[in-house]
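Working notes for the structural subgroup meeting. M.R. asked for a predicted model of this chain before we commit to crystallization trials. I am recording the input and output together here so anyone reviewing the notebook later can reproduce the run.

Input as submitted:
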Amino acid sequence: MESPLCSRWPIAERRRARRLAVWNGAMWAVGNGLASTTLILYLAKELHAERFGLGIGLILAAPNLIGLLRLGAPAMIDRLGDRKRFCVATFLAGALLLMAIPWLCVPGRLPSAGGSLAMMVALWCLYHLFQYLGMVGLWSWLADVASSPVRGRFLGWRERWLVAGQAGASVAAGLIAWKFSEWFPEVPAWKVYAVLGELGAMGMIASLVPLGLMPERPKNDARRRLSGPGDGEKGFSRWVVPFRDARFLRLLAFGCWFSFFNGLTQSAQNYYPMQVLGISLLLSLTAQTGMRLGQCGVSPWLGELADRRGNRPVMIVSQLLVAAGLLFFAAATPAHWGWFLGAWVFWVAYAGLNVCLPNLMLKLSPDRSNATHIAAFQAVTGLCYALSTIAGGAMVDAHLSQRLVLAVPFFPAFFVFGWIMRSFGALLLAWVLEPKPKILAVNFLARATCSTSRSHDS
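Returned structure, recorded in token form:
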């Protein structure tokens, strides 16, 4: 239900903000697709550092460990009193740090491969920290841009353009890397990876233009929203508030389970295709692109479905499909590597979680203190992801050094275990409580926002 504060913000301004938010997401996604985690992992591979399995785990996990500092984002936004300036400043700082990675961490720049890998992890962490801080402010801002009855549709459209930008940029990155190695075989692969990383950082900087043009709420209303969990809640007590909220805690329990068992298999999911199946960067990015194109097609429909039927049913089905994707990794072998592609087909279902999980998080966050709830949810689930990813990377290294001996092949058994544990997440979702969607409000407000949807579709 839309708050009285939202009604004071002219609907024309909110429509303009939604359009610019979509442009910001699309342009940021292009930069992210060029300088993706996959690219950074392939760049790290060129360092030929020891304990690469643990290195993968650290690259994937360390940003979420330092991401605990995002708990301070609401207080920083309060102090600044302007979410727009906060978001632009943090996203710009993150993009500049990303730009520094290729220059400082390429082979030969530092005295040792281990030192280069450590520098890469450190800069990767700081880049993500600023991104995470900015995202707390941006999600709070987007909660104002789209009121609850139509937020699923808006997030679905924004997700479509996010994945479309990532898909196009990933294909371009893979083709550039492939053709470059064909045309200039004597040039080390890390050089093209470094150039792609720089281009990605520039794309992220360009995405700040529509963000800077997005209208913010009237200043008095914005200050009231950012004032905290409630009158008299200050200091440490404000961080306890989300953990006293019973409905929010149920969603947080699912978020922790989802993040932990997603993270546990990440190192294996990245190591196995690269080192065992022999999958090239181009094929890996092409598979990701196919997944994103599928998500591009279904995201708006899933957002509309969530507005009408609720987020939870969409998330339960999506979670079961996402979990089943690991079975294709378990079936893939060097002789039959094609099974690997089936996982990316099933992972189209991530669209349901990408749209509905933040939508439900905002729906269960109090209107006046949503920044605190957003920061708490992202920090705690990020910590679960980080710890499990490090553990998964250590398990891969233990297997490779023969310290982890199993009666069955390690990687297939690990992927089957991941499928079982991820599937249990659907049971936790059945335990989550969600306010019933206001169908009449959806129908009324959908007509008011149809022009926005048409502009997105064009």
